[in-house]
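W.,

You were right to be curious about this one. When I first looked at the sequence I had no strong expectations either way, so I just let the prediction run and decided to look at it fresh. Below is the sequence, 563 residues in total, followed by the output.
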Amino acid sequence: MASSLCDLHHNQITSYLPCISAQVRLNAYTVNGQTMRSMLNLQHRALSSHSAYVGGAVFSPLHPNYLARGHMKARLWAVRADSSRRDSQQLYYRPESMKAAAPTASGKFIGFAVGAGLVLAVVFALVKLTGTLFNTATSNMVSTGIDLPFSPRSNKLERRSRDRLGDFARELRLLRSVDMSGRNFGDEGLIFLAEGLAFNQNVEEVDFSANGITAVGLKALSDVLPLNDFLKALNLSGNPVGDEGAKGISVMLEKNRGLLKLQLNSANIGDEGAKALAEMLKKNSCLLVIELNNNMIDYSGFSALAEALIENKTIRAIHLNGNYGGALGASAFAKGLEVNKSLREVHLHGNGIGNEGARALISGLVAHRGKITTVDIGNNSIGSKGAFHIAEYIKKCKSLLWLNLYMNDIGDEGTEKIAKALKQNGTLTTIDLGGNNIHAVGASHLAEALKDNSVLTSLELSYNPIGPEGIKALAEVLKFSGNIQILKLGWCQIGVKGVEHIAEALKYNTTISTLDLRANGLGDDGAASLARSLKVVNETLTSLDLGFNEIRGCLCSSSGTKG
């Protein structure tokens, strides 16, 4: 019987004890009649597979750089006891300084110990490999969105994450309206929660916005929502679902018969996603509101949605603010408006449609067979020429309640056209003309219109250089005319002189409840002027904003009123 003794000296105890086998290789020898080659090969394979990524590079316990660190040293004595098997006993690594040792009485026991040690080494390597795989998996889970207060290596990670998701699931079962925005649970969390929505007959509104959800997570949601007709509103805004996610949710909504409102704002949706949603709108007979604000939808996406409006019979509001429709997109959208009868709200803020786009859009609105109540075309580079078409629509429309022209450039000329139209309109209650380069002349035209208009209740004129003269014209009318309840005049260069006219009007006005005079250079003198006017009993004004006016002191009137 051949025996061998490995005297292993370890300078530093490390977690990679199996590396010893990489430094000592025996070609073939036997212990107790059993060949050790297979055991060594098994251990070598286990060690070779036990590698991990460290700093972007593959690290293995068998790597030469690791072996060169000198963590271990080995001294090997090989004893040949059986001369008949002498040729098979070869030493692969043996320093010249080492001499053969004589066999001892404990050789059999030592051979058994070596074999047992090698088995333990293999088991230890497998345990380390399992730990590495677990840590990698939990690290990936954290990187994809699970927001937890534990280290990825903590054994409490999975249990705590499931506890949090369990709390979310209970909210879905118990509450009518659930806000889970910004929880950062990612695709894994949504997959976990989606199952609870399949046959949920309690929750009506769910907000999953800003959770790092992608098309992968939406796939799970799309699979279960066709089974739920109770959910009425779903908010997925602020999630990078992209076109693929939009396609998935579109397939789901073709079958769903309960959802009334879908929000996909800031979701990285382009033309392809818009086209998928348009196909859904052709088949869906339930959805009332769809929001696609701040995406990347261009002309072709607008065209597809316009075609959907021709066939759809139920949609009430479509939000496309902050996209890239342009004049061509507005023209295409107008064609859908001409035929559609259900739409009530059109939101195209910030699409750069310009004067030509405004003309085409207004043409579609005039021909619309339904009752449009809300039009938002602010921040679209519309000038006085575009204002002409808008004014014509104001004159003709008998259902319009809310009009936003904020941050265009209609100027005094365009304002005059709008003002004349307001004299003939009997429905519009809110108009936003902020940031349109309106001066005193334009303000005077609006003042004249208010003499003959008792329907308009909210007027926004902020960010226009109206100045004291323009304010004077408005204030004179507002003393006894009009029905303005909300008046916003922030950043209008009013000054102390202009605010005196407002202060005088407030002594007589009985309709204004909210007044915004921010950033008008009023100072202490302007504030004092307002304080004196308010000594007169005013039971209507409930909100007065004087921010950014460099009012430094606490001003008190003779009656003790603080300004």
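Here's what jumped out at me. Residues 138 and 158 are 8 Å apart (CA to CA). And, maybe more interesting for your project: The longest helix spans residues 107-143.

Coffee later to discuss?

I.
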